[in-house]
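Lab notebook, bench 4. The sequencing result for the construct came back, and we need a structural model before the next group meeting so we can plan mutations. Quick request posted to the team channel:

Model the 3D structure of this chain.
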Amino acid sequence: MNQLLAMRAFVRVIETGSFSRASDQLSLPRSTVSKLITDLEKHLGIKLIQRTTRVLTPTAEGLDYHRQALRLVAELDAMDNAVRGHKHKTHGHLRVDAPVSFATHLLIPALADFHAQYPGITVALGISDRAVNIIGDGVDCVIRAGKFEDMAMVSRPLVALEFVTCAAPSYLQRMGTPSSPEDLEQHHLRTGYFFAGSGKSEPLIFERGEHRYEVGDCAFSTNEGNGLKELLLAGFGVGQHFKSIVQADIEAGRLVPLLQDWSRPALPFHLLYPPNRHQNARLKVFIDWVIATFAVRQ
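Done. Here's the predicted structure in C-alpha cell form:
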C-alpha cells in the first residue's frame, strides 16, 4: 500500500463527502480510491468511514486521523515546493471560480501577468454568478461579491467596485431622461439583476447624504453580469452596473450616465479559500498575486 497516496485519498474523500468526487479530483478510478481507504483501515486496524448507499460519515477515529493526515499532507507539499525553490518551478493545477463580470472584465485580462510569472501553473476558471460548493466541487478558491458570512472559510478583501446609473441613448430618445429616483420609479423602465438561487430581484439603490431610495419592479432583469450590460446597451431601460465594467461604453457614447448626484454603495469583493489549504504552494502564489493585483489599497 502507498500510505501517502492512501492518506491523500482519505483526506479528499472526507472533504468532498464522495468517493466519486474524490476520484475525479485525484484522477484515479473510483475503485482505486475505495481500495486505498480499505487498505488504510486495515493497516491502522480501525474503521475510518461508515459507508451507506447514500452517505459517507467519518468515525470519531476517522475525524482525528483526518486532522493529522491533513496537516502531514500539507507539510509534505510545503517541503516539496520549498526544495523546488524558484517560483518558475511552482507547478500544478488550480480550480478557481469567479463572478461573470469580474472574471471576464478584470481577472481574465490580468491572467497573462500571472502566467508570465508562474508558467508551470494551469488554471481552470469557473465563471458564474452562482456560488459553488468550494469543498464539494473541488475548487481551490473563489472570488465572491457582497457580505462575507462563511466562518469556515478564510476571507481576503479585494477591490470594492463602484456603480454607475446609466441607459442607452436609444432609450433616452424614446423615453426621456429621469430627473430623480422618484421620476425613474414613476415614468421609466428599469433593467436590473436577479439572484439565480432565490429568484429575488435586486433593486436599484440611490443614496445622497442621509437619504436612501430603492427602486424595484424591473421590466427586464438577468442573473448574469454580462447579460445586464447587454440589456442596457440594447435600450431596455435604466440600470446600474459597475463603473469599471461599462466605462468604455460610456466613453464611446453607447451608454449615458444618469442621476450622478446620487450614488449606490460600492460592492466589496473577497477571495475565499478553506483554511487547510494555506500551505498549498500553487494556491499561495495565486492568492498573493490576486491580492497584489486587485486588493484595496489602504
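The longest strand covers residues 154-161.
Will bring this to the meeting.
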